[in-house]
Amino acid sequence: MVSVDGLTVEFGGTTLFADVSFVINEKDRIALMGKNGAGKSTLLKILAGLREPTRGTVSVPRDVVIAYLPQHLMTEDGRTVFEEAAQAFAPLHAMEEEIEALNRELEVRSDYDSDSYMALIERVSALSEKFYSIESVNYEAAVEKTLRGLGFEREDFPRPTSDFSGGWRMRIELAKLLLRKPDVLLLDEPTNHLDIESIQWLEDFLIESGQAVVVISHDRAFVDHITTRTIEVTMGRIYDYKVNYSSYLRLRQERREQQRKAYEEQRKMIAETKEFIERFKGTYSKTLQVQSRVKMLEKLKLVEVDEEDTSALRLRFPPSPRSGSYPVVIEGVSKTYGDHVVFRNVNLTIERGDKIAFVGRNGEGKSTLVKCIMNEIAYEGTLTLGHNVMIGYFAQNQASLLDENLTVFQTIDDIARGEIRERMKDLLGAFMFGGENSAKKVKQLSGGERTRLAILRLLLEPINLLILDEPTNHLDMRTKDVLKQALVDFDGTLIVVSHDRDFLDGLVTKVYEFGHQRVVEHLEDIRAFMRRKKMESLREIERKS
């Protein structure tokens, strides 16, 4: 259906990938995998026609519709939620209006034998055939079903899109894409702005719709459930596996073991050949053999072992200055927006050293309570920060707030103070920004690299209360694991908002459950919390909220 042939992308003197070829077939559900910065998002933009490769072609049949959801996007203001989602049907309405206009023109024409009249008849026939061949179900019902599946309530439909955060606007854009019923869906981190119930709905939709899908996601469960094929981008080339993510990991490990074995055997052969050449290069009777082996080495294609992401990413937060025994005390706190009550009469005491998860459906107030603690929004009640509390805060949009025109080095050089300045190179290297990468401008970084840089900024100042709002969005799976270990080792107080069960498991020791305008404290880890509620996954937590 879509054919990629000899694709090469060169960027800033570096070859991102070279001579890449593959085909997207009908009903393929492909996971695009690779470390941050490998070129996954760039490849998706080329498939979407938004970026030109240095060389190579992407061939798409004329009648094939491709829809693309980028990582970062803002829906235009000026329409309601329902009106914006219904824009998916705008081409259909335009076609209907053109048919009506052509029919009105035919009614007043009398030059029945003219070429222009026959051309008009053919145009109306072709358009009508196309219009009525489209499954024009009740579009209002389709819009409602899709919006509700993605977490909107009916009372949200008439509200202006400007009322909603970037994450909810992304859902509106996703709804528009799904309603267009494209032949190929290109999704770059679609689950980052979805709660777990909406992720489940999207999984079911993608599996049942029969559309071809190419997805970049660092959500293990999501890619495992929906994909049947995995394309890995690594070291400037691709490997195409006709299996889902879990099977791909096993096959990739086998491939690398075979490569390492072939690499070692070749190294041994080269060493033995060089030793033979050195030993006999002055011996007349061995001249032909020596020359033959020299030529063989010159023509030898060296075996390469694909990079394993073993770069020394060692996150370690500096020792926390000691805070008071109770960093945050919340007494009778309520938050409303007009008539909408987010939560009411919340009473919580956070102790020094607590590691807490905020869980619950989107819109139940997790990020709102964080903003109250940060004193970013007004609220009713009393919220007291303890003695010597120093807050480090990672918001959902933190990575997008970085100055795009600064380099990586300038971004951290601007805030680094004192002794930490002596360790700048080590820190940059540990975060995989060593060497030339430190001179990259922020606008050249991938979403995962920006997130990593935003987290690095947190390490440069002493903190004892760390608040992270969806910190794993855009991080590759290995980096998530390393960040999690650093947070386990962090000796301060931690509040983390996340829908990622794997990330929370083994990290947090308390769970604050948001729902029905209340916040309920559970003195247990996420696994015990789910077991007590007889739930298999956080999907059920959010569904029952």
Automatic annotation (TrEMBL):
- One matching Pfam family is ABC_tran
The cross-references to SMART domains, in alphabetical order and at most eight, read: AAA (SM00382)
Kindly give the CDD domains that the UniProt entry links to this protein: ABCF_EF-3
**What Gene3D superfamilies does its record include?**
P-loop containing nucleotide triphosphate hydrolases
Kindly give the SUPFAM superfamilies that the UniProt entry links to this protein. Answer: P-loop containing nucleoside triphosphate hydrolases (SSF52540)
Which InterPro entries does the annotation name? AAA+_ATPase (IPR003593), ABC_tran_Xtn (IPR032781), ABC_transporter-like_ATP-bd (IPR003439), ABC_transporter-like_CS (IPR017871), ABCF_ATPase (IPR051309), P-loop_NTPase (IPR027417)
Q: Which residues form the ABC transporter domain?
A: 2-260, 328-541
Xref: PROSITE patterns: ABC_TRANSPORTER_1, ABC_TRANSPORTER_2
Q: Does the keyword Repeat apply?
A: yes
User: Keywords on this record?
Assistant: ATP-binding, Nucleotide-binding, Repeat
The UniProt GO MF terms for this protein read:
ATP binding; ATP hydrolysis activity
**Family to which the UniProt record says this protein belongs:** Belongs to the ABC transporter superfamily. ABCF family. YbiT subfamily.
Name the UniProt record assigns to this protein = Probable ATP-binding protein YbiT
Q: What organism is listed for this UniProt entry?
A: Candidatus Parabacteroides intestinigallinarum
